[in-house]
User: Which sequence fits this backbone?
């Protein structure tokens, strides 16, 4: 696998061509095969959620390797812009990181420092890395090529983040914003819903800022298809479809309801 000549990141490739990139949120799964399930269900990436669940670094590495084997991009939501595991996940093969609760350009800059190679950031050059067939990112051109394939997204999910989002997305090395719709709504605290026109205007404002700067915009938490269509048409092209646990609960519930209804006849 040649880092300088091969598109490694399926999600980034989709975004670059103006297509929709869909991701499966991994919270329940702990197995290498989660990537294969994401691939067979037509996802472009998995979002390994280290913010909301406890996973060992070995488990995250296994999920990353499984995603590579299946041809989907492994993206990790870290615990914050200053998560000490950031370089570990990247060296293990993560092709994207999402940092939650980014509220200022200063925090976004610190995130970039931890995740990008010099001269943009301060990430240390690793030795041989398994997901590249044990090639070593030993020089500036190889490191720059890997940086180009690695998505760095800052989550906007607070009032301060909303107010500062244009400065955040303008930071060099940030590839775009990912809106945590449910948490942003909660932070606003004004009793509105995801369907409220004023809240939708906030969402469209964030998307517009990304589009104006030629950067990506992602949306999480919003599951209404009509509202998602509006946001996609405005330029938000990176979406999470659902949480793995929620999909299992929904499918299991429908199956048991069907069985009980049929067998009770």
Assistant:
């Amino acid at each position: 696998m040649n880092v300088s000549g091969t598109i490694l990141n399926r999600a980034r490739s989709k975004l670059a061509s103006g297509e929709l990139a869909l991701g499966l949120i991994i919270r329940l799964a702990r197995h290498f095969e989660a990537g294969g399930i994401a691939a067979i269900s037509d996802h472009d990436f998995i979002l390994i959620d280290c913010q909301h669940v406890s996973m060992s670094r070995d488990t995250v590495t296994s999920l990353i390797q499984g995603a590579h084997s299946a041809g989907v991009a492994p993206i990790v939501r870290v615990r914050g812009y200053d998560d000490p595991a950031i370089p570990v996940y990247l060296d293990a093969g993560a092709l994207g990181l999402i940092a939650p609760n980014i509220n200022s350009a200063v925090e976004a800059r610190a995130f970039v420092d931890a995740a990008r190679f010099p001269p943009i950031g301060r990430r240390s050059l690793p030795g041989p890395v398994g997901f590249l067939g044990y090639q070593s990112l030993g020089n500036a051109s190889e490191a720059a090529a890997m940086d180009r394939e690695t998505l760095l997204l800052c989550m906007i999910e607070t009032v301060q983040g909303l107010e500062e989002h244009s400065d955040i997305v303008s930071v060099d090395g940030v590839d775009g914003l990912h809106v945590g719709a449910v948490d942003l709504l909660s932070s606003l605290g004004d009793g509105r819903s995801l369907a409220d026109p004023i809240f939708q205007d906030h969402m469209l404002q964030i998307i517009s800022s990304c589009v104006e700067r030629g950067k990506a915009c992602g949306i999480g938490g919003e599951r209404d298809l009509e509202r998602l269509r509006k946001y996609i048409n405005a330029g938000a092209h990176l979406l999470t479809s659902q949480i793995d646990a929620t999909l299992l609960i929904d499918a299991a519930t429908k199956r048991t309801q069907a069985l009980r209804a049929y067998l009770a006849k």
